[in-house]
Specification:
The protein has 13 helices and no strands. It has helices at 3-26, 28-32, 37-48, 53-62, 67-76, 81-100, 111-148, 157-164, 166-171, 173-178, 183-212, 227-231, 254-282. One of its GO terms (cellular component) is membrane.
């Protein structure tokens, strides 16, 4: 894998995101469901990748049709094997960037304030996670393990995908590999996508139902976003600045400064991880 391949993979991601935004602007169904561009782009990549287009090209190759292109597409879809390899490595790396930047620029609350803010959310999260673990493990013990012969750890996929999401699924890639079930990460990412889509679609249905029944306190049955809001666009008169300049560009571009801060946060997290691993090995 060459640096040029890595660069091409990143450029293709940008193109997919741009196309997905255009789809959101033009396709009414995605607007009504409020699907984010990342989900739309992922769906496009899935269709053009080895799992959909690749399989179709494989069928053509077996019949001797367009053998050269069909055989290459069967392995890596429209994007190629090398690009798919780069993409498969990105989630485990970029999730560190996501978590490293969560609290940057935020005022740390006092302990009492943190407890008041996080306490109810923590209690709710533990309750939901416990239920998802129980249901998942029961399904694993009663159905998945005896019928499909998959590891019992598959019972954790519901919690990882629904409560955790794509970030958790990506971060647990090494853990799945250590327990001898590397395929679990792919299933967890798929479960996270199902959870996100079902949450959006079911959520929209419940919001509409609540608004029509008068059970919503924020919106009513007649509430409807503008065409620009549904398309994910901001009206010109409502646009605001996206950032505040803290340093002069003549010394350093603000984006470069932000990159440095995120890099320091990631490195601190890596050092903490190494320290915890050393303590674990010493015990």
């Amino acid at each position: 894998m060459t640096p040029a391949t890595v660069g091409l993979a990143l450029l293709l991601l940008g193109v997919l995101l741009l196309i997905s935004k255009l789809v959101r602007v033009k396709w009414k169904l995605t607007q009504r469901l409020y699907l984010p561009a990342s989900i739309i782009g992922g769906a496009i990549a899935l269709l053009l990748g080895p799992d959909v287009l690749g399989r179709l090209m494989g069928l053509l190759a077996d019949r001797g049709i367009a053998e050269g292109f069909a055989e290459r597409a069967a392995e890596g879809g429209l994007f190629g094997v090398d690009v798919m390899t780069v993409w498969s490595s990105l989630p485990g790396l970029l999730i560190s960037v996501v978590f490293a930047g969560l609290l940057l620029g935020k005022r740390m609350p006092r302990m009492r304030e943190a407890v008041d803010l996080a306490g109810p959310n923590l209690a709710f999260g533990i309750s939901v996670a416990s239920g998802q673990y129980v249901i998942g493990l029961l399904l694993a013990l009663l159905v998945l393990v005896p019928v499909f012969n998959v590891p019992v750890i598959s019972g954790a996929l519901i919690e990882i995908g629904f409560l955790g999401g794509h970030g958790t699924a990506a971060g647990l890639g090494d853990t799945f590999a250590e327990v001898g079930w590397a395929e679990g990460q792919d299933l967890a990412l798929g479960m996270a996508t199902v959870g996100l889509l079902s949450g959006i679609i079911v959520g929209i249905v419940l919001i509409n139902w609540g608004a029509r029944r008068g059970k919503a306190s924020v919106i009513d049955a007649g509430s409807k976003g503008t065409a620009n809001e549904q398309a994910g666009l901001v009206e010109r008169e409502k646009r605001s600045s996206g950032s505040v300049m803290t340093i002069h560009p003549s010394s350093m571009d603000p984006l470069t400064l932000h990159f440095g801060l995120v890099a320091v946060a990631v490195l601190i997290g890596q050092l903490l991880l190494m320290g915890l691993q050393a303590v674990e090995q010493a015990l």
